[in-house]
Design brief:
This protein has one domain: TIM Barrel (Alpha-Beta Barrel). It is 33% helix and 22% strand. The longest helix has 11 residues. The chain contains ten helices and eleven strands. The chain is of the alpha/beta class. Helix 8 links the parallel strand 10 and strand 11.
Length: 253
């Protein structure tokens, strides 16, 4: 089981995701690093203080249609962290540019995706092992269709890993959508399944393990100390598991 720290980047700084417009996100203030919004200091702390060698990066400028922050991404990558990067890529050219800037894998988000045909083209261009599909939802729903149908379309496009990400829960510490995560695992036992949005502490991570999640994206709980390096050691000692015997998984979505 992996805990994957998050870096949300805007204007060359790390910002703190929370409900509301992304333009209103404040600079990160974290117990892990001094100052405010220092993305490189946070990336080092994720590696050195927490022992995490993997990081999820959201380039909010690029996602909004602006210029990608390739220079900053390259600086983060040179620290030695493996990076899952959402830079709003919608084409093979954009995906290749993200890889060239330092990403280990490119995150293709439903929020910016033109079509699942475009996703298939990206997969064919750079390889399914280098693509992660992000099922971007708000309160468990998407105007693009039912979540489980969207997962099916992404897998048919050739992806091997996906993130169940509820953007309305990000920064709220209200817990993740375990019902949806469990339903995805039930239908697709072999897909690499990550989740994000709402993780508030160790108990939330453990619940995600219980429904079969392979990794959880976390930011706020690391910054405010609700999830500690000691907690991460506990998590690493556990593996992702299938739903427990007798648990009911509702996959009617």
């Amino acid at each position: 089981m992996r805990v994957i720290p998050v870096l949300d980047l805007r204007g060359g700084r790390a910002v703190q995701a929370r409900p509301g417009p992304r333009a209103s996100y404040p600079l990160v203030r974290s117990r892990l690093a001094p100052g405010e919004g220092d993305a490189l200091a946070l990336a080092r702390a994720y590696r050195d203080a927490l022992g995490c060698d993997e990081c999820y990066v959201a380039d909010l400028d690029a996602i909004a249609g602006g210029a990608p922050q390739h220079e900053l991404l390259g600086s983060i990558a040179r620290l030695g962290n493996r990076l899952l990067v959402d830079a709003g890529s919608t084409s093979p050219e954009g995906a290749r540019a993200t890889l060239a800037a330092g990403a280990t894998r490119v995150v293709i988000g439903l929020e910016t995706l033109d079509s699942f045909g475009a996703l298939a083209t990206i997969v064919q261009a750079i390889g399914g092992e280098r693509v992660v599909f992000s099922l971007d939802l708000r309160l468990g729903a998407s105007p693009a269709g039912p979540p489980l149908m969207l997962v099916e379309q992404a897998l048919r496009a050739g992806v091997r890993a996906l993130i169940a990400l509820d953007l309305a829960r990000v920064g709220t510490a209200t817990g993740m959508d375990l019902e949806l995560i469990g339903a995805i695992r039930h239908r697709h036992p072999h897909v690499e399944l990550l989740a994000g949005g709402g993780a508030g502490g160790l108990s939330d991570i453990e619940r995600a393990i219980d429904v079969g999640c392979d990794g959880v994206l976390v930011a706020t709980a690391l910054h405010d100390g609700r999830l500690t390096a000691t907690d991460l050691e506990v998590v690493r000692g556990r593996g992702a598991g299938a739903p427990r015997r007798g648990d009911h998984v509702n996959d009617s979505r």
